[in-house]
Write a structure and sequence with these properties.
Blueprint: E1 5-6, H1 11-17, E2 21-22, E3 31-32, E4 37-44, E5 47-55, E6 57-59, E7 71-73, E8 75-76, H2 82-88, E9 94-99, E10 101-106, E11 113-119, E12 125-134, E13 138-147, E14 158-160, E15 162-163, H3 168-173, H4 176-184, E16 192-200
Parallel strand pairs: 2-5, 5-13, 8-13
Antiparallel strand pairs: 1-3, 1-10, 4-5, 4-9, 6-7, 9-12, 10-11, 11-16, 12-13, 12-15, 13-14
């Protein structure tokens, strides 16, 4: 499960990195949480676009009040599940999520801290995702997850589907079997850099935080 990541770059920097055109402005923060805006890179009419969207597909449970805010489904466990397979089969609904680091909670209950991960020698790296338009929040996206590699196993048993630079086109334009294979393959341990911190996982409102390098 990934519920927090950073993108400490401007939309123009992201566009330059991914050889894309940026669409209007972005109200995404440096730290991105489910239900809040982040940036995605998607393909449209033969080019790549960088666009601000809300992280998480809105889900309304039967037990929820009609006026309650939907829950954001921000992670994709299996592309073959009914919720995802229709979008995953169509390249126009695939996207790449740019990030500079992602965090997992580590430690005892009530005292969990943030452990950050990034890809070695990559100032911005890519997470495989899907997007769609929603009635509730406009354009939304979610990130594909996979079994963790050994570098992440001490902290969590799952991790984002990270894409090498030469895999991004395959994710955006490949066959359904191609993208399922990317979800099932293991990202190399040696490319993961970890940073354990004393940052609380849940920060008190108004508390001053030490900025993460990720």
């Amino acid at each position: 499960m990934c519920n927090l990541y950073t993108l400490r770059r401007s939309m123009a920097e992201v566009a330059a990195h991914f050889d894309a055109t940026h669409v209007a402005g972005s109200n995404a923060g440096d730290e991105v949480y489910p239900g809040y805006p982040g940036m995605v890179v998607r393909a449209a009419e033969g080019q790549r676009l960088v666009q601000s969207m809300v992280w998480g597909f809105p889900l309304r449970l039967k037990t929820m009040s009609p006026t309650a805010k939907p829950k954001p489904v921000n992670n994709i466990a299996d592309l073959r599940k009914p919720m995802w397979v229709g979008l995953a089969r169509k390249p126009e609904w695939r996207c790449v999520i740019p990030l500079t680091g992602f965090a997992e909670a580590e430690g005892a209950k009530g005292a969990k801290t943030r452990t950050w991960f990034r890809v070695k020698d990559e100032p911005i790296f890519a997470w495989a995702g899907l997007w769609r338009d929603s009635a509730e929040w406009g354009p939304v996206y979610s990130g594909a997850m996979t079994d963790c590699n050994e570098a992440i196993r001490p902290v969590h048993d799952r991790m984002p589907v990270l894409l090498h630079r030469d895999e991004q086109e395959r994710w955006l334009h490949g066959s359904f079997d191609d993208i399922v294979a990317l979800q099932e393959r293991c990202f190399p341990d040696a490319l993961i850099v970890a940073e354990r911190t004393s940052e609380p996982w849940v920060k008190r409102k108004g508390a001053e935080a030490t900025p993460s390098l990720f």
